[in-house]
Amino acid sequence: MDVRPLRPDEVPTFVDDLWLPFATEMGNLDEHDALAGDEYVRVNALAYRQAQLADEDVQTFVAEADGSQTGYTTVSYSESPPVFARGATAKVTELYVEPDARGSGLGTALLERAHEWGERRGCEHAALSVHARNETAQACYEAAGYETRYLKMDRQL
Fold it and tell me: Domain N-acetyltransferase: where (predicted)?
């Protein structure tokens, strides 16, 4: 297994093989994250990912096994407001492992790569959000040393 940065030429395959399944799974878990029902979802996802590749404060890592992408994580650099005594944070914004590869340590390897990236950028902490109903992901994150510090709440307006 190889965990490495996503390359620009891989974005279409990445969107089709990893991001769309991830987004669909998250939408099935919680309708708040359901994809728009139009033909522009893929086009917008491609443009969004290309823009992220140009942003030095965002990095997407893909895991590759036997020549195909089997998982990914996206991490971003976030400065702490100067009123707080904490340093910058590496925010893990997405983590996905194909269902057949789950439980193999791939999620942990992707998290470790995101943490390494954050440490190189001078981050003091790593943070992430996880769906309240996604117990499998919560267990993965807890095993990697994450603990609940905040509960995010929202409501329909």
Answer: 1-157
